[in-house]
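Anyone opening a protein record will find just a pair of labelled lines. A complete record is shown below as an example:
=====
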Amino acid sequence: QVQLVESGGGLVQAGGSRRLSCAASGRTFRTYAMGWFRQAPGKEREFVAASSRSGGSAAYADSVKGRFTISRGNNRNTVYLQMNSLKPEDTAVYYCAATFRIAVITALSECDYWGQGTQVTVSS
């Protein structure tokens, strides 16, 4: 099975930047479609960004478009989320997700593997 571990969360002031990382282990002989989701207190988990299995394309939620950038490591078994121009409303637990089933993740139901999450808190 696949294990995902996120890192890079923490406290950042509004307007600042932060980079999250997610590393896959276990079944790493091939690449996965990978993505990022987040869940704020009292809210449902929502899609943030995704990178295709090939690493050649990316998709973003409207709320983060133009501010966040998703990228894959050279081995394509890692994924990063560069977060710029952070806002207090970006405060959430950020989760890394992956799947072998499809080429690109677009919804929660398509994710087979999840990390435990990393907290990002943006202060005013």
Summary: The first strand starts at residue 2 and ends at 7.
